[in-house]
Amino acid sequence: MSLPPSSPPATPQWYPVEQHPDPPGLTLLDWLNDQGSLTLRLTDAGADDFHVQLLVQQSQPARADEAQALGISVGEPVWTREVLLHTAGAPRVFARSVAPLAAVSASNIDLQSLGTRSLGLLLFSNPKVTRGPLQISRYPSAWLPSPWAEQQADCWGRRSLFSDGELSLLVCEVFLPGWPAG
Predict the structure, then answer these.
(1) Which terminal residue of the chain has fewer beta carbons within 10 Å of its beta carbon, N or C?
(2) Is 81 in a helix, a strand, or coil?
(3) Pairwise CA distance, residues 115 & 102, whole Å
(4) What pLDDT, in 10s, does the model give residues 83-118?
(5) Residue 76 gets which letter from DSSP?
(6) Is the CA virtual torsion 65, 66, 67, 71 positive or negative?
(7) Residues near 51 by Cβ (< 8 Å), separated by ≥ 6?
(8) Nearest-angstrom CA–CA distance, 93 and 70
(9) What is the DSSP letter of 177?
């Protein structure tokens, strides 16, 4: 018996936080709508037990929702960084950041050598960087790393565009199942 071919995951439907037609519960919504550094909030919530696990940092084709947010063509190569943010003893957030390759080269922000350092701390400590409005959506589980990619339910994510004049960097943060607790 053969299985039907799997269909590609649905593209997230991003909405401004206050305009989402079916938002999550209040505890998660509070995290999704937090305007501060997620790194600092996770560090506080985990009693200073925080670290970044680098999964991927390479050029990849822009997904449709990313291309639209960045004003580029679908499939255009973008600098891509995917990490897991760990706190309180476990991975809690999957983050995917993308930027047009030319913008990464032209920017004064050194994204290439971040390694396991927090991108959020770098962005929030730079007074030249501005953050656009937050948007939220359910995020396709198929776009998450294993083992979360195999789950059936999509997780909630948020994204915003950071800019320093030269650089437009789209940062998407996806809250993994069980976080935040409560």
Answers:
(1) N
(2) strand
(3) 20
(4) 999 999 999 999 999 999 988 888 888 888 899 999
(5) -
(6) positive
(7) 86, 116
(8) 22
(9) T
- pLDDT tens-digit readout, 39-75: 999 999 998 899 999 999 999 999 999 999 999 999 9
Residues 6+ apart with CB under 8 A from 68: none
pTM value > 0.90: yes
Contacts for 18 with CB less than 8 Å, ≥ 6 apart: none
DSSP string, 114-151: -TTS-HHHHHHT-TT-EE---EEEEE-GGGSPTTGGG-
Check the CA dihedral 73-75-76-80 and report its sign. positive
Given a cut of 50, whether residue 132 has pLDDT beyond it is yes
Task: Identify the CA nearest to 84 among candidates 144, 153, 14, 150.
Answer: 144
Q: d(Cα 93, Cα 71) in Å, to the nearest integer? A: 26
Rounded to the nearest 10°, the torsion over CA 17, 19, 24, 26 is: 70
Give dist(CA 151, CA 128) in Å, integer. 39
| Beta carbons of 67 and 77 less than 8 angstroms apart | no
Specify the amino acid at residue 82.
E
Contact in structure between 97 and 171 (CB atoms under 8 Å)? yes
